[in-house]
Amino acid sequence: MAGSTAGDGGKWASGAERWSVFWADAFPVAACVSLEKKYEALADVAAQVPGAERQVALRRLAHAWPGSLREAELVGPRVCAARLASLVEIRGGVGVMSRGYWRTLGASALPLWSELHDLLRDQLEWRTRVEPGECGRGATAVHRFIASAVAHKQRWPSADQLMRVAGADVGSKQAHRWLAHRAGLDHAALRRVLYAEHRVA
């Protein structure tokens, strides 16, 4: 994320500068297309008869877009369909625009979900590479996770800052809190955007 980190990846902008940088960054076409595929896959799974084939599809969804099953469960098929329609309409009309542009159109859930999927994916990939006892809570786990996420340092701060902002449990709640911090939202406001109404700014 251009301009958001210092060379060591540990010094982040703060306050209004921090969240203005987040919303000023581009929401790439590839990220939009990925979300379109997610919502199409969610619709396909919802239409399937319960059984082994559907379970396989659910596991694929959870792997490709971590957090997507929880999203679908909480917002329901109507909101998922509306989010897909927004993606197609906005992307087709303007091409690559900033996250903030999508926010002005009441579609801030879409760039937020794109970033959250990446954060959760980073955590899950780390968990698959370490021993079970090395995952989870505590400063040691957070430092190991951040050390492993060097390729994704545009998304993550230093381990110490991550613990101050989002806690020392490498998991979903930490990812949500860090995203809220970057986007200039409190945790409750972020959850309202992600899980409630698709037209919330």
Describe it for me?
The structure is a single chain. With 201 residues, the chain is an all-alpha fold. It contains 10 helices and 2 strands. The chain has helices at 15-24, 29-47, 52-64, 68-94, 99-104, 109-129, 139-148, 159-166, 172-183, 187-195, and strands at 26-27, 97-98. A two-stranded antiparallel ribbon has the order 1-2. It is globular. The two termini are 22 Å apart. Residues 1-13 have low confidence and may be disordered.
Brief write-up:
This protein has 201 residues and is mostly helical. It contains ten helices and two strands, in the order αβαααβαααααα.
Features of the shown structure:
2% strand; 2 strands; single chain; two-stranded antiparallel ribbon; 201 residues; mainly alpha; 10 helices; globular; disordered N terminus
Sequence-ordered SSE layout with sheet pairings:
Blueprint: H1 15-24, E1 26-27, H2 29-47, H3 52-64, H4 68-94, E2 97-98, H5 99-104, H6 109-129, H7 139-148, H8 159-166, H9 172-183, H10 187-195
Largest sheet: 2 strands, antiparallel
* Order of secondary-structure elements: HEHHHEHHHHHH
Number of helices: 10
Low-confidence stretches: 1-13
Radius of gyration: 17 Å
Q: What is the strand tally?
A: 2
Secondary-structure content class: mainly alpha
Q: Report the helical percentage.
A: 55-70%
**Mean model confidence by pLDDT:** 86
Give, in spatial order, the strands making up the sheet with the most strands: 1-2
Shape: globular
Distance between the amino and carboxyl termini: 22 Å
Measured by DSSP, the beta-strand proportion falls in under 5%
